[in-house]
């Protein structure tokens, strides 16, 4: 609810029994119009008194309804509840039909030019069933929320949009987008729940492959390394005939996961991932940063440092030169400049580039409100090659400092 900027559901969890009983008794003792006014105010999480009174006028609730509410809510320049749980208690006390009516009044009272997102949210709570017009409006609100770094709000908008979407394929697409936003906001379990709903779509082949990809990313976020490698490789293979560019991105993440899991926990995992990536469709005529990093990483794990050295240097230079002020630059930094880029910098003993990538990733994550890309940096050397490897590289001569942990939470 808090991360979603007020666009989550008011009934966030069970109330303490004694407090709930106390507030419920006070609500029941109030005049009917006063009780309706408090319930109406509870339906808008922003405390906008002017909006509440405009909506109240549409419901026939007059100014005389406010004074008896003084024990629970104050209606002045802002609506203030006596206790944070009063709002939840009031919202719970209204019937479903009454709450739909109240959200409908709030939607009508909201200026679509000034606050389109709040209007969309209230419209979504007012409709009784699937409605593509409302769903499309919510999807537009999600785009605006994402642009300003509100990933949890975007996920809430997209989830509600999906639930109101009549057409199955479009519903699965929106639910998948909601799962992605939730994962980027750092809510891995919630993302998996949305993925389960998306899978019931039913999804088409590309959507099913993208869902497998996201499951692998979530597994990696949750430090389930073996599952992450398996799922990401599976997703990459599913994507190959459908979207070769996305397949290469999945191979890069599978390879990165395999390197950090290491041979001890995933015997043969690095070699399998590297060989699969090397056999993948080649990059387009103009390789993207992820393609450059994937090719260098694959070459390292299949041919060794001597052969891969120039490619690793080129990949690191590409990553350091990314413009993180653009959406494309941030995307490539998150995908290729995180653990893959940091590992390459460590293997080349280029601490300056490593710090540039780490600082850039943390700042970019703050800029867009993405919690997952701002996780702690690795604090130990990845198992690219063991010390006893027959093809040791420059990294064997390095000392390995512990990088600083950077977060995107400000």
SSE diagram, text form:
Layout (H helix, E strand, L loop, with lengths): L16 H12 L3 H11 L6 H10 L14 E3 L3 E3 L2 H10 L2 H14 L6 H11 L5 H16 L3 H13 L4 H17 L3 H12 L5 H17 L3 H15 L4 H22 L3 H10 L10 H15 L1 H16 L6 H10 L2 H9 L3 H18 L42
Antiparallel strand pairs: 1-2
Question: What brief labels describe this structure?
Answer:
two-stranded antiparallel sheet; 410 residues; 1% strand
How would you concisely characterize the structure shown here?
This protein has 410 residues and is mainly alpha-helical. It contains 19 helices and two strands. The chain has four domains: 1-110, no CATH class; 129-203; 217-282, no CATH class; 289-410.
Describe the structure.
By secondary structure, the protein is mainly α. It folds into four domains: 110 residues, no CATH class; 75 residues; 66 residues, no CATH class; 122 residues. It contains 19 helices and two strands. The chain has a two-stranded antiparallel sheet with strand order 1-2. A hairpin with a 3-residue loop joins strand 1 and strand 2. Helix 6 runs antiparallel to helix 7 and helix 12 runs antiparallel to helix 13. The longest helix has 22 residues. It is elongated. It starts with 16 loop residues before the first helix and ends in a 42-residue tail after the last helix. The C terminus is likely disordered.
């Amino acid at each position: 609810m808090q991360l979603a900027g007020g666009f989550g559901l008011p009934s966030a969890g069970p109330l303490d029994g004694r407090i709930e009983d106390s507030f419920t008794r006070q609500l029941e003792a109030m005049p009917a119009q006063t009780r309706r006014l408090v319930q109406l105010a509870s339906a808008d999480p922003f405390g906008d008194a002017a909006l509440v009174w405009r909506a109240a006028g549409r419901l026939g609730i007059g100014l005389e309804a406010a004074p008896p509410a003084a024990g629970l809510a104050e209606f002045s320049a802002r609506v203030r509840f006596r206790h944070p749980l009063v709002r939840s208690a009031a919202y719970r006390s209204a019937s479903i039909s009454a709450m739909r009516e109240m959200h409908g009044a709030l939607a009508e009272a909201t200026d679509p030019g000034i606050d389109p997102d709040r209007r969309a949210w209230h419209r979504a709570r007012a409709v009784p069933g699937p409605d593509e017009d409302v769903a499309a409006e919510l999807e537009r609100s999600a785009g605006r929320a994402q642009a300003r770094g509100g990933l949890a709000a975007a996920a809430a908008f997209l989830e509600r949009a999906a639930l109101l979407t009549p057409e199955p394929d479009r519903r699965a697409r929106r639910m998948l987008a909601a799962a992605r936003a939730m994962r980027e906001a750092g809510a891995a379990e919630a993302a998996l729940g949305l993925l389960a709903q998306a899978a019931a779509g039913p999804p088409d082949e590309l959507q099913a492959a993208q869902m497998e990809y996201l499951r692998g990313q979530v597994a990696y976020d949750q430090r389930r390394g073996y599952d992450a490698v398996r799922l990401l490789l599976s997703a990459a293979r599913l994507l190959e005939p459908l979207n070769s560019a996305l397949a290469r991105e999945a191979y890069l993440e599978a390879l990165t996961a395999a390197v950090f899991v290491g041979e001890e926990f995933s015997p043969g995992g690095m070699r399998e991932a590297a060989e699969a990536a090397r056999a993948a469709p080649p990059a387009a005529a103009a390789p993207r940063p992820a393609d450059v990093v994937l090719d260098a990483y694959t070459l390292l794990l299949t041919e060794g440092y001597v052969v891969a050295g120039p490619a690793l240097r080129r990949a690191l230079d590409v990553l350091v030169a990314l413009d993180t002020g653009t959406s494309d630059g941030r995307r490539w930094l998150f995908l290729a400049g995180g653990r893959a880029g940091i590992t390459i910098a460590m293997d080349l003993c280029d601490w300056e580039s490593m710090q540039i990538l780490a600082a850039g990733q943390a700042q970019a994550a703050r800029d867009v409100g993405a919690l997952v890309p701002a996780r702690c940096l690795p604090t130990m050397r990845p198992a690219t090659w063991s010390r006893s490897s027959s093809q040791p590289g420059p990294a064997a001569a390095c000392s390995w400092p512990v990088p600083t942990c950077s977060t995107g939470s400000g």
